[in-house]
Amino acid sequence: MIAVLKQGTSIEQRNSLCDWFKSMGLEVHISEGKYHTVIGLIGDTSKVDIELLEGLSIVESVKRISDPFKNANRKFHTNDSVVDVCGNKIGGGNFQMIAGPCSVESYEQIITIAHRVKAAGATMLRGGAFKPRTSPYDFQGLHDQGIKMLLEAKKETGLPIVTEIMNANDLPLFEEVDVIQVGARNMQNFDLLKELGHTDKVILLKRGLANNLKELLMSAEYIMAGGNENVILCERGIRTFETYTRNTLDLAAVAMLHQLTHLPVVVDPSHATGVAQLVEPMAMAAAAAGADGIMIEVHNDPAHALCDGPQSLTPDQFDRVAARVMKIREAMK
Amino acid sequence: MIAVLKQGTSIEQRNSLCDWFKSMGLEVHISEGKYHTVIGLIGDTSKVDIELLEGLSIVESVKRISDPFKNANRKFHTNDSVVDVCGNKIGGGNFQMIAGPCSVESYEQIITIAHRVKAAGATMLRGGAFKPRTSPYDFQGLHDQGIKMLLEAKKETGLPIVTEIMNANDLPLFEEVDVIQVGARNMQNFDLLKELGHTDKVILLKRGLANNLKELLMSAEYIMAGGNENVILCERGIRTFETYTRNTLDLAAVAMLHQLTHLPVVVDPSHATGVAQLVEPMAMAAAAAGADGIMIEVHNDPAHALCDGPQSLTPDQFDRVAARVMKIREAMK
Amino acid sequence: MIAVLKQGTSIEQRNSLCDWFKSMGLEVHISEGKYHTVIGLIGDTSKVDIELLEGLSIVESVKRISDPFKNANRKFHTNDSVVDVCGNKIGGGNFQMIAGPCSVESYEQIITIAHRVKAAGATMLRGGAFKPRTSPYDFQGLHDQGIKMLLEAKKETGLPIVTEIMNANDLPLFEEVDVIQVGARNMQNFDLLKELGHTDKVILLKRGLANNLKELLMSAEYIMAGGNENVILCERGIRTFETYTRNTLDLAAVAMLHQLTHLPVVVDPSHATGVAQLVEPMAMAAAAAGADGIMIEVHNDPAHALCDGPQSLTPDQFDRVAARVMKIREAMK
Amino acid sequence: MIAVLKQGTSIEQRNSLCDWFKSMGLEVHISEGKYHTVIGLIGDTSKVDIELLEGLSIVESVKRISDPFKNANRKFHTNDSVVDVCGNKIGGGNFQMIAGPCSVESYEQIITIAHRVKAAGATMLRGGAFKPRTSPYDFQGLHDQGIKMLLEAKKETGLPIVTEIMNANDLPLFEEVDVIQVGARNMQNFDLLKELGHTDKVILLKRGLANNLKELLMSAEYIMAGGNENVILCERGIRTFETYTRNTLDLAAVAMLHQLTHLPVVVDPSHATGVAQLVEPMAMAAAAAGADGIMIEVHNDPAHALCDGPQSLTPDQFDRVAARVMKIREAMK
């Protein structure tokens, strides 16, 4: 860690600061420039609160040289982590396709879709039972009934299931769930993350709409610090000024995360774009960018054939996407 | 609500869609253009799921004409709401200053600061007992002990207290707290909002880092839909590309919110800028923009005089800010 | 075009507005709701200044239903445009690789790199002679000497050349240049765009850092309105809050642009990410997203082997990228 | 300047890099950590190309300690610059109000508005003769005729005039113009900035929609490096995800710029918000934030009374804003 002191800092102030650093067991190197003094700190700087340091009246700026995340850091764990979901491996060269409807709506719906996406090559089934909705007046999900339906679909098809949690108090309902999803809005719900760190469930952690990669990794760290290393990261678009797409899918994040961490990274092109026609090209691009998996919304509702959800694919469309993604995967070998 | 249909939509598809709208009790107006058909919907469109509609394969775009928030909407409640905190009124021309440390650290600290900020004109005391921190390795607050210290400070000074909640399970600890703060990261923790809607506490709802004003108002709506109308909104900066300040304080949001809603709006210039020297000008600007209150971090730590927190003011600095803000308020009458 | 009037608009004001629309030759449809009146306009609304209309005191909001771009619009020109650069076709299924150094530095440098990238499969040579730099103290390019060196490299290798213009006054120097690049910072330098519209050169138009797709297409429209239809669009990253990468590459823009316009779209992963290790995965992802070409920085400087530019690949690295991109292209057939 | 080397950098590579720094006349300090080596550079680092350095394969990150701007830097010029416009001083405690229409439309229009805004307290007249418009089909301004009308208005009222330049070739038309405005879209039109640096005109430099404060100051540096120190900076909103306002007015930038530079800073609340009702509160907030002036759009068109431009005030509204801003200025003394 490096701290640059402001012009006009007195020797006493500087020494007082250095003594404080030394009291934390850090080695201190001082280098005097014409306009600035630079203090280099060597040792375990993870205990230094960078915001506190930046706030010192004599400090101009601070730069952390080592990353603040430990368990998730590739530097200390160079091999890819491989997460196992009922025998389906993800990470370390293993690729999985997760598909299913935004919300579980009925037993028939989820069974029908489960069979279709399995036939197309999906290896996990997604479906929301607890739905975070911007408006209190929108449909909020079937809750425990939705989870029961997912478990039925798992029994019928053998597909492990992925579903979102919004509240740690609901954890008992997730006992048989294979992958617990933490949604973008809860990426920094630290109390929820801590609770999940005390389980042994696989956690799919989605990046928040305005969160950078460091914050995503720090949230993974909350889970891992509790002892649960089964974390899969998920890029699903960030919020920008562009309005043609719902969010801006940040595929460079996939490649960057692979440098920063050993954890697997999947991509959700459905929520990222919010536009059904963009899901195919973005699923293919995600595979080409090195994603360890993709998660796609698929919906099949013959009774309301008009409505396929803003970004959902029909099962037929998904057949095509899955086949094309597999061809990209082949080409990358 | 208006829906624009895509070129090439058949009469059957159009009629099927219109029948669906009519089944929801809506009046339907069709107007045919050369390239597009526009469907106008009149009636209670709050039940129409706009995302679902946008997802229809025949729909090009949808525009909601009425706002999706009801309880918070100024259109249906033209007078300013005035929220009362132990006799301190906020909103409708009433202005309050909230001040205190980022975290409660000790009994002595909080009492000292409480006396100082009260003397300078603050009418409420803030202090964090539960601290959302990006890193699991950073200080997380004194929890119930911190709340006890705040209540002691209230007993000593008479200042009502404001402190953040991170988990609805902690609500019993907040029984004597006057204002419960929902932090930026929890603005869309909908389960928490629902629980707060069932209390009669004053809720200070901070805008999320990447949330627009509509989403902020929808989150207020979650609280109000539960029956609790004591909501104060708080602008505290949004995330942008600019890095000289921690966030970008959006003061136009204050004036815009006053047009959209009757709820009071306060501004937190400390977290918004992250730079102590910017707190004074931004507090003054907030007052001039019509804010109903400001919330400022003040810290006093003689033992570590070097460290005043990245954005905290000393009590002496706060004296000056409070006096200058009051002069602005005078000038606005 | 649809205009929603504010509550409380009088019949006289409404009629006065409608008369104004009629005087522009538009057909006017009025539909009265409980809280709002909606005016639908049919006909050629391209002359209606939307900003002016939004500013009317009686207008709540305006929605344009047809896009404001004409020449670039796929609706009026359904087939892909194919741009021909000395026999290298781009668009409509044709894919080209453009490679070369950020700046032309010397005759030897550009010749060496040209030979290497040609051998790897590049079909056009890029190199900057006029360099837009944030600082007036940074290297600004070799100007006319740089263009001469590029032309020499073209003579030696047969590769057509791509180089950036910053000032319409320099056009005479670009007479033999094959593709004139307009950089991100000049995407809305409308005087420059107009001048380029009067040439018959192929123009590579880069998206500005904070520009949405509509603005990019309107800038293309400036060139096309002058009679020059040889426009290639280029996605090169937008500015967001994420700092691990220089910009955020928006690959969904490629797929979205293919829906909105018939113009070819290329991707520049080098400038978009600013990180050499991310260029390969992003070049592959761009190809998989359906880009009509990629543009990559390649630099070879044996004298300063340490320095390969923040995002430049070595020729050896480019060999590998080119081969892998070609495999992705194969897989997409 | 500090460079952090990657893990695994060899001694030879490190020494080679250090030799390169020494060849630039820099003093080099090496400090070895467990995981990283940090190189501190002391001396004139303005010649070190930071992007080049960041690109070195052995460099993990680089931090510039001194700012890259010199002429605009408050560190080397501690007193506020005061710019004089025909006797109206701006900066160093002097405050001016600039007002007028977005576009000059006719002789009568500009004269009428000039008289009205002068009566209300404005001390300079703004009006666009060259208009940068997103669409090639929108009104582009009256060009030389517009400038003539402005000069007539100046003759009649004595108000100095402010108008935008889009092309250095038009400079001869600006000979009698008092303040030349560089618009947001041209903030990094470096050729234009260089030309303006060779004049002795006062330049009003607007911040680009996606430009940070460092880039704004570097653009000022382009003008000042040419010898013209008469630069006024202008904050006019940045582009964010929020859509209720056209842009997000960044008032903390005003206070931050006052710390970074000695140049005066004015605020344009009209373009920043795009909403007439927000202009008054934002003008007042700008004054309270310490702005050295404000620039407001005022339009008076009796023939089209319906239309007051999306963000323009009527002269009557401006009277009120000007009076209230003056009260804020009074309160700040």
Low-confidence runs of chain A (pLDDT<50, min 5 residues)? none
What is the average of the pLDDT values of chain A? 90
Q: Tell me the major beta sheet of chain A.
A: 8 strands, parallel, barrel
CA-based gyration radius of chain A: 23 Å
CATH architecture of the largest domain in chain A: Alpha-Beta Barrel
Q: Quaternary status of these chains?
A: homotetramer
N-to-C series of helices and strands of chain A: EHEEHEEEEHEHEEHEHEHEHHEH
- Largest sheet: spatial strand order of chain A: 7-8-9-10-11-12-13-14
Structural class of chain A: alpha/beta
Per the CATH scheme, the topology name of the largest domain in chain A is: TIM Barrel
Number of helices of chain A: 10
> What is the end-to-end distance of chain A?
40 Å
Helix content of chain A: 25-40%
The name of the CATH superfamily of the largest domain in chain A reads: Aldolase class I
Percent of residues in beta strands of chain A:
15-25%
Assign an overall shape of chain A: elongated
Overall number of strands of chain A: 14
User: What's the structural domain tally of chain A?
Assistant: 2
> For the record, what CATH class of the largest domain in chain A applies?
Alpha Beta
Protein chains sharing the most extensive interface: A-B, 55 and 55 residues
Description:
Four copies of one chain form a homotetramer. Chain A is of the alpha/beta class and 333 residues long. Chain A is 34% helix and 19% strand. The first copy, chain A, is built from ten helices and 14 strands. In chain A, α9 (276-288) runs parallel beside α10 (315-332). Chains in contact: A-B, A-C, A-D, B-C, B-D, C-D.
